[in-house]
Amino acid sequence: MVEEGALLWKPTDEVVRDSKIARYREWLGRSEDDYPHLWRWSVEHPEEFWSSIWEYFQVIGERGDGPVITGTMPGAEWFPHARINYAANALARAAEAPEKTAVVFRNESGLRRTLTNAQLLEEVARVRAGLARLGVGVGDRVVAYLPNIPEALIAFLATASLGAVWSSCSPDFGAPSVIDRFSQIEPKVLIAVDGYRYGGKAFDRTATVRDIAAKLPTLRATVWVPYLADPAAPGRPATEHAGTGAAGGEVLDWHALRGGAEPGAAEPVVFEQVPFGHPLWVLYSSGTTGLPKPIVHGHGGIVLEHLKSLSFHQDLGPQDVFFWYTTTGWMMWNYLIGGLLVGATIVLYDGSATEPDTGALWRLAAEEGVTYFGTGAPYIMACQKAGLRPAGLERLRGIGSTGSPLPPEGFAWVYSAVKPDVQLGSFSGGTDVCTGFVGHVPLLPIRAGVITCRCMGAPVEAFDPEGRPVTGEVGELVLTGPMPSMPVMFWNDPSGERYRASYFAEYPGVWRHGDWIKIMPDGGCVIYGRSDSTLNRGGVRMGTSEFYRVVERFEEIADSLVIDTGALGREGRLLLFVTMAPGHTLTEEFAARLRRTLRSELSPRHVPDEIREVPGIPRTLSGKKLEVPVRKILQGTPVEQAANPDALANPEVLTHFIPEKPVEG
Question: Is-above-0.85 flag for pTM?
Fold first, then answer.
């Protein structure tokens, strides 16, 4: 095992000098501050800090007079007199560098398309005019059932420019899952794809789209994007869809929405200036155990947060090529397109990360000259298990990992197999704020398995059971003060009751995020998994991440899930479910070896009472393991009540966790 905390990289004087955060520090006149002091200032003086972000990045909008923030959590309001538009800031580079490449699109079939800043601006203008013709205005909702293709980005920016509200789902979502989300916000326009390709297979979604449209009675129009029919040019007419279907209002295709093909015919984009907290988009919780929560973020909060995070923590700017492997159904898509705010070229990819093999994304990065490569921790671990040694990454200087904790072995693989001088940033945050609370900063060294720091402006603490901050101990991840990108509301929650219950029920006036975190004396952090799926053995709380770190290091194991069936005051059984790698089966000899390893490397408390083989581990559409729903199934909750199958990537595996009789502690 790689020792947690082992030093892997430390910044040179040149790296520090050239970093975006060092330049900001000098601009502030705080060049002597080390990072912990700078962070402390940012959270103890949020008015000064966030006001400086607006000024430093020369945010486009009207700052307005009056305070930066009024009220306290959960009712804090930022920049109450400001007017702003996200799209105006994202497209600001078009006039400065019209011929610079803004967007590169690739898919698993090898298709490549690009858009310059000027071309992106023109396409946004065309689609904006099309949406306006359909009656879309300030506050109306536009929803999309699209893969990670340029049309999704264009439609979003056009929607935002109008002051309308965006929401999207990836086309691998089933109809019930999409309807559960979109029906809550009563959209006026649906933009949908005819199908997509994944893992070398084609998936026709025309029947699914018609089903979705039929269940959205507020639609005035359905717009088809013929991506499956013609992925190289989905802007061409697709008349087979036009006028079909009784539901969904007017039916047209993307070609018609954008007003035909005449170049240069679009009118200039007008950006509707809206209040700072005006809804920008609606993201959703996973919806595994109930109706997904519709989380609303505001224009201003996202602009300020993404400028800060992408510049100071990812260290991105106009010279960068920014890639993150994501779909439109995950908040990392919203984060990726934020690269436009700092002038970076963004790379959109549609398809499987492992088609035709595990090294596909690294080859893409090499071919496109990617400077910052983002992915989920499971992909890094899969590359490590496959023994990959990516090549051709001369321009790469940053790697981001998120989605789940990255174990020390993943850190070590990056530095031994990818690039010894790259900056690897493990980040943790969430859909709730569309950013990271904790992550990397170029001013600090990188240690195996350790998240470098708490992010600027994020007042993160670890709370013990009595609600007191602790250092060097595992506690609840909380935020003791507000951030601008916290939700402005949940949709259809006028009293704010659902919002308060989600984050503020445990500690009044303090945001409880639901993760276990240990904050070290030097400010480094380790995330141990969700606090609602804690292992509690012999009175000792244990996070699931350290368990998976040991189990999934075995080449014989493809995936795993650990469940503690105990309850408050009652010891339960510790059950380990494993999906074996191809060519391997769970034998008594292997199970015994696994138990011995858990005992020696963790503790006797970590030795499972039972190890079971299952054909797959249930995961959400964004890749998170279903620890809590499986625990409920084991205790007798029917599958259909424990988890919404339409919110899962592989719902068929849930039946393998149904016990012959409910498990008791």
Answer: yes
